[in-house]
Amino acid sequence: MAERCARKLEPDWTQKNDDIRARSRELGSHHLLAEFDAATAEYGQTEWGQRSAGPMEAFVATLTEGLVEALADLGADPARLRTVHVVPTLREDMTAEMRPFADGSGLVVISDSIITLCGLYGESVAVAMSHLSSNGRMRRFWRAFNAARKGAQGIDVPVLTSLLRYHNVNQRVYNLAAKLGLRVPPDAEMVAQLVMLQSARFVIGHELAHHVLGHDSAPSGFFPGEHLPACSDDQQRELAADLLAQRAVVRATEAELGDTEAARAGGLLAVLGGVIAMLAVHSAEQALFVRRGVSHPPASQRASLLLAQTDPRTRRYAEMFLPALLAATAASSMFSEGADVFDGDRALASPMVSTPLPRTSMRAVGMFDTLQCLSNDRSVQFLERARPAISSIGEGARLAAAGNAAAALREWGVSEESVRHIVDPWEPLTFHSLLVSVREGLTTRGLDEDMRLSISVVAARLVAMALES
Amino acid sequence: MRELGFETSGVIVESAVSDDVTARVQRVPEQVDSGLCAGLCRGANTAFEEGAAMSGDFIEDLGRLSDDELYEIVGMDLQGTGLGVSPADRGRFGRFARSWLDNKSRQLWSQIQGTDTYRIWLESAGRDQLVDPDTVGRILVEDDWEPRASAALALLLVRSKTAAVSDAYDIAVSFAENERDYVDRTVTAARALALKVFYDRDMSNTWWGRNFVVERRRIYGQLALHFVPFISAEYLTEPMPRDDFSHAVARAFNSGNRYILPVLVGDVKVPSELLLPLIGFLRAEKHTPEELAAHMRIVVDDSRARGLQPRDFGAVVHDAHRDLTDQP
């Protein structure tokens, strides 16, 4: 059953490539188009290219093969391993989940967005490593000392925060897994790829581990809050899956690289990869949800448990990066007054950030971020003044600010059924889902298209605050 | 009733899928010999019946749902549901299904058009006819889709094809066999006036009736500014199923729009409950086919000037027929 479902979900990679080309043409970026075509042609000549037109598919398939072998080496039942299928999907949602079927088979679904986010964290770590180890011993020493003193071991927290925030705003407003590029120095590229590779291995390994461990009484997922009810048993299972995944990643790396220096580095980076995968989930839980169910334990708790299983040297190394990564994740997840909002102009001016997007797009993201970080009073003022002819907008704003989310939603024309779901404290809710409901409601109130999204963002955020309180 | 010129409005459109479909229609007779065809037909008919049993009812029920609701159904089938899944965030199912179908649509159509079931449908299809959701749903069921999800997906696929139609017909005609000669000359004259006309020699009233009533098939994808039934005694009095279709047509143009432009042929007595007094019509006897075509040209120009949009007349008539048969 899992295999049949996997076949349906499998993306059409040819179409995906055509879409990328079309998008490049729309942007007028002939450079991007040429680069993409060259990369596609080069990829076609590789071993992976012979397997699939989709690099993501070949990537996931290759990693899965290694992990399945590793799990078998670690004692997992080979018959059970044969019943699990892994498929990548072109999903904007941050998700990796294991779906159990009645016939005992399991389907692991990995969205490319989670790998993308892992890549972003990985690049930051790689740049930091490169930064720390360049330009002479004294300067390295000084940087390391300084970074350790600040608790930000070489990682540029504001830049990482900005990159993560850009991703989070796009997810919250547009449900898009958009990502700005980080310029990675040539000497850090290999490390960046290795960290990303290991974090991807961990994500897949975690879901495979659920299948191996027989966690099939309920679907399990990396997607926060969607599947798992709040209960400690489930969290215990997540931790068990983490530990088995980590062992599988290390074993798969050893099998791939043998007893080499690279393998030892790979083992080290495997720990970082695992931590990064946890942070990616943690980031989504913190930043994208208005109300969460409980899926995984907090990243810091998971990371601590994972690090406790590693040798002291590796642990110390990984721990050097953890505070900075957690700080950037926390700063990028805060959508309230006083947050360090995304600044498109500043990002474009940064020598570390790379994007083909025009300044207007970047500014739009900054504007939507700002609108989500207004104080309640300013939000109400904004809504009262934005379209004074539609009195229900201001009335709803005052109700939401007073903590009456349901009444505000009704005032804005949100259907009774949606209101019921939105205010139900037991149901997880993403900001984007809330925004869609509010926008649909306001449309029925006659709100014009020009201001619809902006007003809806502010209104949804007011409701989110009311629900959180 | 008062007799009017075609001062009304309306449009009918050409199907964008036509290139592919037409090419297949033209190829099929050359490629499939009669023995093979008969074999395929038997197999396909069995599959059709089984598929219909599983998905046909869903098509009827889900046909009233919005695209958002259909995407949600498809997304739930693809992603699955389980303990603790949040109904509040079911929006994610819809969002996922939308992006999934954006990516998979071309592949799915390619798979659908490669099936025997589709090829058999194509043989009975009219020129430029867009495949109906029933047929697509049955094909998907054969491909292991769950019946309800297959119905939802079939509706989405066909709707998106229909929406992709950009080259609309000006006029679509419906007629009884007796009027074929007159209709044929009218269509020729209309085409000479650069009107795009949905007309095929096989698309008589019988063809429409068979599709709508016997096979319960919605004729999707034919959009037109105006639908022109040539209403004769035969058109109204032929036994079922044509009669049923004709009543549906009459009911549709009684529903208050001027999208359907009836042409009365001969001394036909249209029951008052089918043709209200204020409905505008033309009498064929008072106009040569060339004059009728000229009238059509004027009406179409006027409709375009008023910005009227082409409509899916298959859906209009289908809905009217459903309402008719739902009556006690």
Morphology call of chain B: elongated
Radius of gyration of chain B using CA atoms only:
21 Å
Large-scale geometry of chain A: globular
Q: In what order do the strands lie side by side in the largest sheet of chain A?
A: 1-3-2-5
| Average residue-wise pLDDT of chain A | 83
Number of strands of chain B: 7
As an assembly, this protein is heterodimer
As residue ranges, the low-confidence spans of chain B are: 1-48, 82-88
Strand content of chain A: 5-15%
Helix content of chain B: 55-70%
The major pleated sheet of chain A works out as: 4 strands, mixed
The two chains with the largest interface, and their residue counts, are: A-B, 36 and 24 residues
Estimated structural class of chain B: alpha/beta
* Helical coverage of chain A, percent range: 55-70%
Note the gap between the termini of chain A: 43 Å
SSE ordering of chain B: EHHHHHHHEHEHEHHEEHEH
Strand content of chain B: 5-15%
Features:
heterodimer, A: mainly alpha, 4-stranded mixed β-sheet, two-stranded antiparallel sheet, 8 strands, globular, B: 328 residues, alpha/beta, 7-stranded mixed β-sheet, disordered N terminus
